[in-house]
Inverse folding.
């Protein structure tokens, strides 16, 4: 019964976004989508915790943990797919090639270079806004928070044994 409720809840949550919420300006960004999923997890987590407390039993708490775990997997997958579809450089390249069908290669390369510049400027603006880097006289440097973040990310990359190309 609880699993059917969960599937129904996730289905409705997804449909609400796909059919209505995605057209609302506050939910058209990664931050907005994050808060949509976070708010849902807080609400349903609070409800499940309330049920587990008011109706004690080992299965009630297990259901709450399972439900929140599955909600987390759903939310992270949704956010990852949205980010890939929204900002994927490869998708942008494919779109650029499709819209420039029949044009000379040098024009296509100019469009792709412009796209790369726009993506780079956007990422730099995000890092500045987050306070991870600062700019002085045309040069960028890490802030203390940026150094801590870079160190944490290097540690994760090392542990995961990811090969980074420079």
């Amino acid at each position: 019964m609880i699993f059917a409720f969960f599937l129904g809840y996730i289905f409705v949550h997804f449909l609400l976004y796909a059919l209505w919420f995605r057209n609302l300006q506050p939910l058209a960004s990664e931050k907005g989508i994050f808060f949509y999923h976070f708010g849902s997890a807080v609400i349903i987590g609070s409800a499940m915790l309330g049920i587990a407390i008011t109706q004690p039993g080992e299965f009630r708490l297990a259901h709450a943990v399972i439900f929140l775990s599955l909600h987390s997997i759903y939310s992270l997958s949704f956010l990852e797919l949205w980010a890939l579809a929204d900002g994927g450089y490869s998708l942008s390249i494919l779109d650029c090639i499709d819209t420039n069908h029949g044009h000379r290669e040098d024009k296509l390369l100019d469009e792709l270079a412009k796209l790369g510049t726009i993506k780079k400027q956007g990422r730099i603006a995000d890092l500045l806004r987050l306070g991870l880097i600062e700019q002085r006289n045309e040069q960028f440097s890490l802030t203390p928070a940026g150094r801590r973040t870079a160190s944490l990310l290097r540690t994760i990359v090392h542990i995961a044994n990811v090969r980074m190309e420079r």
Observations:
- The mean pLDDT is 81.
- The CA atoms of residues 106 and 112 lie 10 Å apart.
